[in-house]
Amino acid sequence: MSLTTNLPGLSLKNPVMPASGCFGFGKEYSQFYDLSKLGAIIVKAATGEARYGNPTPRVAETASGMLNAIGLQNPGVKSIVDEELPFLRSFDTPVIANVAGSTVEEYVKVTKELNRSEDIAAIELNISCPNVKEGGVQFGTDPELAKEVTAQVKEASDYPVYVKLSPNVSNIVEMAKTVAEAGADGLSMINTLTGMQINLKQRKPIIANKTGGLSGPAIKPIAIRMIYEVRQAVDISIIGMGGIMTADDVLEFLLAGANAVAVGTANFQNPMACPEIIDALPAVLEKYGFSSVEEAIGKGHIG
Amino acid sequence: MITKQLLEIQSHLQIAADTFEVVLKSPLAEELRPGQFVHIALKHHMLRRPVSVAGVDLEAGTFTVIFKIFGEGTRVLSTYQAGDQLDVILPCGTYYPIDQLDVKQALIVGGGIGVPPLYYLAKTLKEKGVEITSILGFQTKDQIFYEEKFQAIGDTYIATNDGSYGTQGFVTDIIEKVNPSFDYFFSCGPTPMLKAVSNQLAAHNGYISLEERMGCGVGTCYACVVPLKEDPQKSKKICKDGPVFKANEVILG
Questions:
Q1: Strands A65-68 and A59-62
Q2: Which of A158, A189, A272, B119 could staple A165 via S-S, CB 3.0–4.6 A?
Q3: B40 pLDDT band (50/70/90 cuts)?
C-alpha cells in the first residue's frame, strides 16, 4: 500500500501532517513519538516581530469542536528561523512554515526572512486568521487583497507557496481561483470559522477576544464541501483540513480532492492522533478499494 | 517523561459538595511531584481537563486527584466509577522546587479547588522535616475537604466566605490574625485570592500555582499564557512553564 503523495516542493511519505498552530514547533510532541513518522509538519505562524497575542481565556470547548483566539502569538520570524526550525532538522520530514502579517509588507518581510532558512520545504500563506484585529482574515476575505498578497509573497519566496483559505467567505471558489491566478502553488483549506460562546453565569463571551475560530469535527462537512467545490474549479494541489480525527476522515478529504491533509484540533485531544491516523490509513484505503493514496485523490466526484 | 496512558480508576469518591477524589493506578505515579497536574480526556469532549495531583502512594503505585464540578466536563468526570479507565497525559507541568529551597517553616495558603495540590506539597514537606502551617479557604462548610489530613501535618486554620465554619472571611484575614512564622509560602486557589495573598506576603519568598482553560496541556497551543512582571509583552505557558511560578514572577489577571 503506497501512502506517498506529491505536491509542489513536497514529496511526502504519507499525506498526514499536523496543522499550523496545533503543533507549536514540534518539540513538545516529539516527546510522544518520532516526528519522522509524519508526512510533513506545518509549524506555528510567524510574523515580522514577536507577538504577545490575545488576553486569556483563549480557548473554549464546543459541541464537537473548540473555539480559539490565540492571536498569532509567536517569537517573530527571526527567532523562529534561528531558534525553532533547526530542531526539526533531525527528523526525516519536510517542514512547512506559516507566514502571517498585518500588511503586505510584513508578509513579504517574513517570507524573505524564511528564504534564509534551509529547514523548510514550503510556506503556507496565512490570509485567514480570524483572531487578529489587523491583517489576517481581511486578506482572506477580500479577493483584491488576497490577489495582491499572494502575488507579492510568491514573488518574494524561494519556496512553493500554499495559500491558506478562510471559510468565512460567501464564495470560496472565487477566492481559490483568485489566489491560483495570482501564482499560488497550492491551497491549504480550511482555516477556522468565526464563532462565539457565552458563559451563562458570567453573561459574557467565554473567550476574552469575544470571538474565536471554530475547529474540530463540527466544521468537517464545511471543509469537505469547500474542497469539493474548489477541486472542480482549480487544478493546483490542496492540503485539506478541518476536523480530521480518523483515517476514515482522511479518505473523505482525499475523495473530495485534497492531495494531502492536516490534522489540527485532534492533536489536543490525543497527542498520538497523527501517528495513529497514519497507522490506520492503509487498512482504511484497502477497505474502500484503493491501492494507494494517490489513487483515492478526487475520486469522490461523480458525473 | 511525559506520556499518554490508559489508567484504571481504583476509587472514585465524593468528599465534599460537588467535590470528588479519584485514585488512579499508574507506573508513572512515582514521577509525579507536588504542583504537577495530569491532563484527562473525557468521552465525547474535544478538550482534556487539567487536574492537579493531590497525593502519590508509592507502595500502591497510585496517585490521587481531586476535582470540583465546574462545568460540563467535570460533571462528566464525576460520573466515572471505580474500574473505569481514563485516558491521561502525565506528568504535566512544573513542580514546587522544594529540593532547591532551604525551608524550615512553610506557610500553605489554599482556596477551594486549589487546596488539593497543596496537600501533596505539605505532606512532602512534612516528611522532609519542615514545620507546616496551613490556612485554607472554602466558600461554605459543605465544600470543606481534607481538614483532618492537614491537621495531622500541622496547625490548620479554615476560613469560609459565609462563616458557616471556621473564620468568616478570607484566608488573608487569617494570615493577618495568626501572623504565622514561615520562610516560604506556597499558595494555590482562585486568581483573586492568589493576588491578595501575593500582595499581602509581598515581602516574603513564595510560590503560587495557577490554573487556566487549556488547549493541548503540553505547551504547543499557547492557550494558557500568563504575562511576566519583568516584561508584560512576554509570557509563560501555564501548562509547560507552570503551573508553579515564583509569587512575584507573573501578572495575575
A1: antiparallel
A2: A189
A3: very high
Tell me the pTM: 0.95
How many domains are contained in chain A? 1
Subunit contact B220:A59, Cβ cutoff 8 A? no
pLDDT in tens, A13-68: 999 999 999 999 999 999 999 999 999 999 999 999 999 999 999 999 999 999 99
Range of the domain at B115: 98-209
| Coil, strand or helix at B23 | strand
Residue B162: give its domain's CATH number: 3.40.50.80
A49 touches chain B (CB under 8 A): no
B38 pLDDT band (50/70/90 cuts)? very high
A131 in contact with chain B, both atoms CB, cutoff 8 A: no
Q: What are phi and psi of B193, to 5 degrees?
A: -70, -45
Structural domain contains residue B237: no
Residue B54 and residue B88 in one domain: yes
What is the grid cell recorded at B97? 522546587
A95-99/A41-46 β-pairing: parallel
Name B192's Cβ contacts closer than 8 Å, sequence gap at least 6.
none
Selecting from B41, B216, B235 the residue whose C-beta is nearest the C-beta of A52 gives: B235
Cell of residue B192, nine digits: 483573586
pLDDT digits (tens, 9 = 90+) for B180-194: 999 999 999 999 999
| Residue-range definition of the domain harbouring residue A177 | 5-57+73-196+216-296
